Amino acid sequence: MDSTDDSKKGLLIVISGSSGVGKGSILKKVLGRRKNLKLSVSYTTRKPREGEVESKDYHFLDESEFLEIASKGEMLEYAKYCGNYYGTPLKALNEELNKGNNVILEIEVQGGEQVINKVEDVVSIFVLPPSLKELAKRLSKRALDSEEVISKRIAKSIQEINLSKRYKYVVINEYIDECASQILKIIDAETLKFPRMKSKIEEILKDE
């Protein structure tokens, strides 16, 4: 991260949660309600799924390209998840934050922990399913994985949920609209904290 005045920069928001918890659907609603809210586009070595678009959903790289970029320190965080690498481009992220835009990183817990350790004022939000039974149901419904893979994802989810204590906020995705509204309330509250209102206060006092 760079040294631009923090009161003028946008918020860095990390959203993590188990595979199948519905992060993508929630974020579509969240992003549609705020003009200055942007989604960081991650690097990944995973193959594109049907309908995914380069530079919109992900920057798709082969493993050697990914590791070369990581070795140059050009990612805020990166991690290997289910056999594929994922990482956050640092330059593009800083450009958006310095414009005053609030930026969401939708990343796995491994990457989330890295950001939490590196960025003191990161707004970290963990999305929980209503229950493990409901999570398994959602994973089966999207028909992307075999029963064996779903079982592995549930086991991984239990480990990840146990790490939710590292996050500042926890929301439950039982109803998408309600969950999206809760996330927006968190973002609004963080925006109004004193350190981020400092420049506005100084501006007001100049007119005294």
Topology:
Elements: E1 12-17, H1 23-31, E2 37-39, E3 43-44, E4 59-60, H2 63-71, E5 75-81, E6 84-89, H3 90-98, E7 102-106, H4 109-118, E8 123-128, H5 132-141, H6 147-161, E9 169-172, H7 176-191, H8 194-206
Parallel strand pairs: 1-7, 1-8, 2-7, 3-4, 8-9
Antiparallel strand pairs: 3-6, 5-6
Helix pairs in contact: 1-7, 5-6
List its salient traits:
single chain; 208 residues; alpha/beta; 5-stranded parallel sheet
Give the amount of beta strand, in percent. 15-25%
* Mean pLDDT value: 90
Overall 3D form:
globular
Largest sheet: 5 strands, parallel
Q: Predict the CATH topology of the domain at 12-40 and 101-206.
A: Rossmann fold
CATH top level of the domain at 12-40 and 101-206 is: Alpha Beta
Helix content: 40-55%
Strand-pairing-aware structural class: alpha/beta
**Low-confidence spans: pLDDT under 50, at least 5 residues?**
none
Radius of gyration over alpha carbons? 18 Å
